[in-house]
Amino acid sequence: MRLLLDTHVVLWAATDSPRLTPQIRALLQSTENTLVVSAATHWEISIKNSLARPDFDVDVVALRSGLQANGYVDLPITAAHAAVLAGLPDLHRDPFDRMLVAQALSEGLTLVTADSRILDYPVSTIKV
């Protein structure tokens, strides 16, 4: 299965967070699955870092390097993704999450998320 990971899932995986359920851990560790990380995730993390919030400090370069070393696949944002995004119903206000939905729909990916608002879109999801 090709899994597109929501930003929080990427961060939880990178930090081995206890928020990852045993089911999700098994999916992430299975060699049968391709783990995909969107450029939107790295973009979102970079923006959150620029806000200098004391509760958020992630080295996006080190994160990406670690993800790549562990076999995660980068997914760039394309004009085709933006076209799908333009046709999405306005069910979610977060532009990064909307892009992830558009990418999952465009690429035939299953989106792994804890965000229940994403479940309202007609996209294949796995709820954390």
UniProtKB/TrEMBL annotation:
Pfam families: PIN. It comes from the Bacteria. The keyword Lyase does not apply. The keyword Isomerase does not apply. SUPFAM superfamilies: PIN domain-like. Residues 4-121 form the PIN domain. InterPro entries: PIN-like_dom_sf, PIN_dom, PIN_Sll0205, TA_system_RNase. Keywords: Hydrolase, Magnesium, Metal-binding, Nuclease. Gene3D superfamilies: 5'-nuclease. PANTHER family: RIBONUCLEASE VAPC16, RIBONUCLEASE VAPC16-RELATED. This is Twitching motility protein PilT. It comes from Agreia bicolorata.
